[in-house]
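3.2 Worked example (two chains)
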Amino acid sequence: MNVIRIATEYDRDVWKALRGIVYDGCPEAVHEEDINIWLRDSDKVCFLIEENSKVAGFLEASLRNVVDGCLSSPVGYMEGVCFFPEYRSHGLSKQLMEAAMQWMKDQGCTEMGSDAELHNAEAIKFHQANDFKETFRVVQFMKKFN
C-alpha cells in the first residue's frame, strides 16, 4: 500500500536526496535554503509518496499568480517531481499528481502549470504522458542591476 503525505522537517535528508536528482548540479546549501522556504510558505507544499514504508519520490507544488498559457489565478504549479530510480515505472506519479491537484483545487486553482528544460526529453515525455499540453518554448534571461 502506498502512502502520500506532506514532507516535514524530519524528511529533510530524503527530500535533499530527491532534489539532488531532479536539480542536478545545484549546491546542497541551495537545497537547504529551498527546503526552509518550502516548510514555512503556505503557498508551497512537498508531497512524498512511500512504497512499503520507504520514500519513493516527491512532488513539489506551489501556487503562482501568473503562469504562461494559463488564464486563471492562482495557478497550481508542479515545481519538481522525482522518484528514486528503483521506483520509476511503478505508476506512482499519477498518485502524486492526484494529491497535488486536489491540494491545488482546495486552494481555488482551476489550472496547473509546469515546465521542463528544452534538452530534458525525459521530462517532456513525462509531462505529455500526464496530459500536460505544451504552451510555449522559450529561453529565459535575467539581468542583475548594479
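3.2.1 Second chain
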Amino acid sequence: MGAFIVVHVEVKDPEKFKAYGDSARGTVADHGGEFILRGKVADVLHGEHALKNAVVIRFPDQAAAKGWYDSPEYQALIPNRNEAADMVFISFDEPPAS
C-alpha cells in the first residue's frame, strides 16, 4: 500500500527555500518518492490555517516514506529547511481501492 506525505509550508526566505527544494528533490527520488502536487493554498474553507503552500509526495509505502525522512541525506538538509520555511509534515497511508 502506498503512502503520502503532505507538507504544509510558509516560506520565510525564498532563496534558502529554493536551495532546500533543489537539494530535497533528489533525496525524495532516491527513496522511490514522487511529487504529486506543489502549490499555493487557494482557500481555507473552514477553520484557520496559517501556512500558505502545500506539497504532496507519494512513496511506495510507509517504510520508504520514513526511510526518506530519516535518511542522513535528508536530515542534513533540515537546518537549511528550518531557516527557509516553517513546515508541518504529515504522513498518510494510501486508502485501499474500493
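3.3 Remarks
The radius of gyration is 14 Å.
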